[in-house]
Amino acid sequence: MKDRQSDLCSKYIKIFIVVSCYWIVSIATVFVNKSLLSSQSVNLEAPLFITWFQCVVSFTICFTLSKTGGIPGIFNFPIGTPWSKDIVGKVIPLSIMFTLMIATNNLCLKYVGVSFYYIGRSLTTVFNVIFSWILLRQVTSHRCVLCCGFIIFGFYLGVDQEHLLGSFSLIGTIYGVVGSLMLSLYSIYTKKILPIVNQEVWLLSYYNNAYSIILFLPLIVLNGEVDVLLNYNNFNSTYFWIQMVIGGFCGFAIGYVTSMQIKVTSPLTHNISGTAKACAQTVIATQWYNESKNCLWWTSNIIVLASSALYARFKQVEMEKNSRKLIPEEEKSLM
Question: TM segments (predicted)?
Answer without folding.
Answer: 12-32, 44-66, 87-104, 116-136, 143-159, 165-189, 201-220, 240-258
